[in-house]
Design a protein that fits this description.
Elements (H helix, E strand, L loop, with lengths): L3 E4 L8 H4 L3 H7 L9 H14 L2 E4 L9 H10 L6 E4 L10 H11 L5 E5 L13 E3 L8 H11 L2
Length: about 160
């Protein structure tokens, strides 16, 4: 069965420390930034790629700023071993409706085996989302998240 990884960038493949700003400054200046991919987090993502070979679906804000081929090139330049298959649809509020965008992709593509790797607060209404591995915007992806992914995909 195919595995799908819904992937955010900011707060997953980098941290606010990589930008040298706090969260408020980042949000206020996002239109003037390009994203950063941390070598440490990219190495951890490559571990996931090597172990599970998931289909990567980009759910990040940056999917609306760059073409899929540009995103793939930026990822490869940072050492990415995988391929970005697709992006989630863009509708509603970028962070506010992230779960709905992912859910729409899941339903339209008959996806059943997935993980959402994201620092966004998908649980604004205290709803628990299946297979959501939440990272911390100030630290990004780390080894504890890899252990959570193992628990989900090694069942």
């Amino acid at each position: 069965m195919n595995k799908y990884l819904f992937l955010d960038i900011d707060g997953v493949l980098n941290s606010f420390d990589d930008y040298g700003v706090d969260g408020k400054d980042f949000i206020e200046n996002i239109e003037n930034l390009t994203f950063i991919l941390s070598k440490r987090q990219m190495s951890l993502l490559n571990n996931i790629i090597d172990k599970y070979h998931p289909k990567i679906i980009l759910s990040s804000y940056w999917r609306n700023r760059y073409s899929l081929s540009t995103l793939q090139n930026k990822f490869e330049t940072a050492g990415f071993k995988g391929k970005i298959l697709a992006i989630t649809p863009s509708f509603g509020g970028e962070h506010k409706d992230r779960w709905q965008q992912i859910k729409h992709y899941i339903e339209d593509n008959d996806v059943s085996n997935y993980i959402i790797l994201d620092d966004s607060p998908l649980d604004r209404k205290n709803t628990k989302f299946p297979n959501w591995v939440k990272t911390d915007s100030y630290h990004g992806l780390d080894h504890k998240h890899l252990r959570e992914i193992d628990k989900i995909w090694q069942k």
